Amino acid sequence: MTSQLISRAAQAEGGLSPGRSLERFLVPAAISLVIVVTIVVGGLTNEAFLTESNVLAILRVAALTGIVALGATFVTIAGRFFSLALAQTAVFGSVAYALLLQSGLPFLFALGMTLVLGVVLGILQGVVVSAGANPIVTTLGAGALLAGLAGLATGGKSLRISDDATAWIGNARPFGVPTQTWAFLIVVVIAFMIMRSTRFGRAAVLVGANRATAELAGVPIARVTVAVFVIASVAATIAGIFGAAQFEQARMSAFIGLDFDVVAAVLIGGTAIHGGEGSPLRTALGAIFIAMVQNYMLLLGWSFGPRTLVLGALIMLAVVVFHMARQRGGRS
Amino acid sequence: MKRFRLNRPELLRPALPLAVFAFFSITISGYASLGNVYSILESCALIGLIAAAVGTTMIAGELDLSVSSVAACAGVIAVKSSDLGLVPAVLIATVIGALYGAIQGWWIHRLAISSLVLTLGTFIGIGGAAYLLADERTIILDLSQLGMAQALRERFWIFSPFSATMLILLLLVGLLLRYTRIGREIYALGGGRHESKAAGVPQARGMILAFALSGGLASLAGAMASIRAGSAAPGSYGDLLLTGVTAALIGGVSLYGGRGSMASVILGVLTLQFLLSGLALQGAAFWAANLATGAVLLVAIGIDLAAEDSPARRMLHRLRVSRRNQTAAITSSQLEGVS
After folding, report:
1. Measured over all CA atoms, what is the biggest interatomic distance in chain B, rounded to whole angstroms?
2. Which secondary-structure segment (H or E) carries B232?
3. Given its phi and psi angles, is residue B136 left (phi above 0), alpha (psi -120 to 50 degrees) or beta?
4. What whole-number distance in Å separates Cα of residue B102 and Cα of residue B247?
5. Contact state of B136 with A137 under an 8 Å Cβ cutoff
6. Do B245 and A140 touch (CB under 8 A)?
């Protein structure tokens, strides 16, 4: 037991053991390779796949999934598994944003208020989880509550948004690239910097790797837990605003399946399911991969069933392969 | 520690459904009629079996997130094989589900992987499989077989064959868990995984049984509910996990494992369904059920947290003890300084 503690703590410190460096370089290389193979195979077998409009569509979807997945990566790294409230948080955020705009508030103010709301939602969930509650069940309940509240606020109807700035956010293409993709790039850089060079980022990794050691080392576990849920919640809110802006309306039925895509992106990126390891960069690659696969299956005319089955199979594959690789690495 | 026993759960738990029932009986006329109680019990049948499924894995210290997809899949299988007759169709779906659950439990034991993560993957995958099996559409019971649907909802006083099956099965599972060796092993897995392993309690078979029960009960629920409805939609039952976990938690099954019983799961299911049907009878919109279930679930999580042997309580206790030791150390060092 003790030796296990020490070895896991050593891993968390980022010591350059062979297994660690392997993971750092091999996994991103492997995902990149898989992405390249998908591009080549997709382009050769389906001429619609690599057209400019389709690539932009993929980038846009990957951006929204990716932004949320980057936020969720922090939750997973800190050892709190997943949030199942992300899709509902996005819907709730888009409804709140639309309502704030409808009430005549200026664009920036509505944007700020919605983001503050995202922070509050994250704090509430984080506090409950840091008190020791199961994160998945807590977010399951929070998600139901948020969906109910969004229904209560809108009466189940879609809310129209007519605002120039919002329309720009939703559909503009600065330098030929969708705004969502720009936002995705910015969020990737921010998430990478937080993880790599802030005290909080290192603390999140340590809490995920070994909570007992983190506690002994004086890491404020509760504060870290609340912070990771705030990050995930704000990321979902940002995605909600982008989604509402793109269709110029807030819909109750939006973002169905977002949670699954996010989980898939995080896990395929190789973030350890028990926490303590993972990188935003790899999650971003995972999100791009998932968006590409989903898009390709759509082009093939596959319906929801087979697409979901493939997604589930990919998640299982990623989970089992990474899990077994880590176990083997830990034993030798 | 005895003084903290404000909320004696064994007294509080039966009082909760009674209180909700009494409240709506007074505010809604006809709520307490035999016909309405029959229909509430009828709606309990599905949730009860799911709560028992999730509850069994919770007692083992795990959580089967795949129950709603498994139920949907089983519903499709049962309706598709309804030509064989009611009992064979339901049995086929249940056995397939139980086998699937056993395999899932074996994997979780073998890989020593978190069931939350593995079953999240199967939840998504099996959900897709249900669509594939059903050919993406709602499968409808053949007109000549509609008698089956009637048979399941036939009314005997306040019971139907479906709700009676649920009650009997929950009691049987409760007896299995409480009085058999393997049942106690499931409790041991949840109550103290490392301790039970050190004491020589077999780890694999309890885990396999817990997940086999979960898969089987969820399949039975999906199969019977789909035949009763006369159709199976692959995307149905999406909310089952939420209501199942909520009912199990109200029933006092702890998410930390090792605690809870099937008798109190029944009480939890009754509490939730009394509440939800009361809301529905008052004409609440579809999101109200979500709102109410979510709120109840969060409250139940809070109560689970405040329970005596939850991690939060233990942490508080540790904190208090260490602070006491600190002050003791400080005073003794001060005393030394004086002398």
Report:
1. 97
2. strand B231-232
3. left
4. 24
5. no
6. yes
State the ipTM, two decimals.
0.80
CB of A18 less than 8 A from some CB of B: no
CB contact under 8 A, A315 and B124: yes
Q: Name the residue facing B117 among A81, A149, A327 (closest C-beta).
A: A81
Question: Among partner residues A144, A151, A310, which is closest to B293 by beta-carbon distance?
Answer: A144
Interface test with A, best of B62, B76, B100, B120 (most A CBs within 10 A): B120
Please name every residue paired with B139 in a beta bridge, in sequence order, or none if there are none: B232
Q: Are strands B231-232 and B139-140 parallel, antiparallel or unpaired?
A: antiparallel
- Taking contacts as CB-CB distances below 8 angstroms, the residues of chain A near B72 are none
Q: Which residues pair with B159 in a beta bridge?
A: B156
Strand partners, B231: B140
How far is it, in rounded angstroms, from Cα B167 to Cα A66?
A: 46
Structure tokens at A13: 């410190």
Residue ranges of alpha helices (H) inside chain A are: 2-13, 18-45, 52-77, 86-102, 107-130, 135-154, 164-171, 179-197, 199-209, 211-216, 221-247, 258-268, 280-299, 304-331
- Apex A151 CA angle, A169 and B246, nearest 5: 120
CA pair distance A89, A149, nearest whole angstrom: 11
Domains of chain A: 2-331 (1.10.3470)
Break chain B into its structural domains and give their ranges: 2-308, 310-339
Indicate which of B50, B117, B193 best probes the interface with A, i.e. most A CBs within 10 Å of its own CB: B117
- For the domain bounded by B2-308, which CATH number is listed? 1.10.3470
Whether residues A150 and B287 touch (CB distance < 8 A) is answered with yes
Judged by CB atoms within 8 Å, which residues 114-153 of A form the interface with B? Answer: 128, 131-134, 136-138, 140-152
Residue B253: closest CA among B244, A127, B120, B207: B244
Q: Is B287–A312 a contact, with Cβ atoms under 8 angstroms apart?
A: no
Residues in B closer than 8 angstroms to A260, CB to CB, are 124
A320 touching B, CB under 8 A?
Answer: yes
CB A136, CB A82: distance < 8 Å: yes
Contact yes or no for B234 and A305 at CB 8 A: yes
Nearest-5° Cα angle at B234, B105 to B231: 115
Taking only the tens of pLDDT, chain A with its 332 residues reads: 444 444 444 444 444 444 455 566 777 787 888 888 888 888 888 888 888 888 888 888 899 999 999 999 999 888 888 888 999 999 999 999 999 988 888 889 999 999 999 999 999 999 999 888 888 889 989 999 999 999 888 887 888 887 777 888 787 788 877 888 899 999 999 999 998 888 888 888 888 888 888 888 888 888 999 999 999 999 999 999 998 888 888 888 888 878 888 888 888 887 777 777 778 888 898 888 888 888 888 888 888 888 888 888 888 888 888 888 777 765 43
pTM for the whole thing? 0.83
**How far is A246 from B200, CA to CA, in rounded Å?**
59
Instruction: Please report which helix (H) or strand (E) contains residue B139, including its range.
Output: strand B139-140
